[in-house]
Amino acid sequence: xxxxxxxxxxxxxxxxxxxxxxALLLASCPGGDGSADSVDKNALSAKIGxxxxxxxxxxxxxxxxxxxxxxxxxTQDAIARLTDAIDAATAVYNNSGxxxxxxxxxxxxxxxxxxxxxxxxxxxxxxxxxLNAAITEARREWSEVNPAPNGNxxxxxxWWSTVAQRNAFETAINAADAVSKRxxxxxxxxxxxxxxxxxxxxxxxxxKRPGTTPNRAxxxxxxxxxxxxxxxxxxNENDGKDLLPGQWWAPAILWRNLxxxxxxxxxxxxxxxxxxxxxxxxxxxxxxxxxxxxxxRKDGAVLPSGxxxxxxxxxxxxxxxxxxxxxxxxxxxxxxxTISGDFExxxxxxxxxxxxxxxxxxxxxxxxxxxxxxxHRLSVQVTDDDGDVYSNSLNFIVY
Length: 399
Fold this sequence. Notes:
Layout: H1 18-28, H2 42-55, E1 58-60, E2 72-74, H3 76-94, H4 100-116, E3 120-121, H5 128-143, E4 145-147, E5 159-161, H6 163-181, H7 187-207, E6 209-210, H8 217-231, E7 233-236, E8 248-251, H9 252-270, H10 276-296, E9 298-299, E10 311-312, E11 334-338, E12 345-350, E13 353-358, E14 363-367, E15 374-383, E16 389-398
Parallel strand pairs: 1-2, 4-5, 7-8
Antiparallel strand pairs: 2-3, 5-6, 8-9, 10-16, 11-14, 12-13, 12-15, 15-16
Helix pairs in contact: 1-4, 2-3, 2-4, 3-4, 5-6, 5-7, 6-7, 8-9, 8-10, 9-10
């Protein structure tokens, strides 16, 4: 029910100005066009939540002299007025047929009730028994808060504070405990110790924070990369000698090591009780295994004749493309190809695109880095002195 609200300004608290203030509030809160579909209840919902929070833990009292300083009080009439305002506003909020005008009026009424509700702390002097109970509760709260520079080491459903904040609260607890243990402590000293401890606990309650909700996006991405590498890499015990170029392989022990790391990391995606530090540790552990895997991953080493290189339409016999080979992009292999015989023109094409053409281009240097890794086709067209054109081509792999 709690949503950000900032539609209207502040208002006064004098009861004699209720009518004027309500009119001003209504005038300053723009509504919809009155139709059911356009009625905006967000501001009303937020104000109801604010009222309920303000009323929470407030006890009734005539003057607060029977209420300890750790407890807030208000008169029974004040509590009843705010309760009635909450009930009335809630009824309008739950009314599906409410107009924007009635919603704005309910907002103005409950806003005024919230502004006029001012609970106070009790003034009853605490006894030593009550001081001891407060000390026990304070120590419990102190013990449940993890001292840390941030929330990364704390579960999202637990609390943390800085070491300095936690130490300051502990000092206040010890000071109250020292008064409690004194047999000669006066009533005023006990009362003052209770008030000081209450103030320290209220401050500490505003300082403690819930643990950081782990950000798992980086871990999800790393797991996806590692799984892709595992899918495209074979676990091999023969140094890749039984695999073709273009087929990735890695030592079987490293393949299984990465697979285990991926499965371990996945547990941190489904577990609820993990901290940000736990997730960061899982990322670092998996990245270490993945980097080791990538450092040892290699291409296949065998080059069987005709296994990856195929000829297409050999053409006339006096065009000799020689014996081809697989080209390494990383080593920038160069494969010189020479056309035997005399021709008027030589035209060389890579994947159907003209690379070079001319009467002196009978030799072509096929460079690996002129192509991206993958399968490609090199073609040559020669023209004789009669104008006849002959062609030949080959498929090659750059890896």
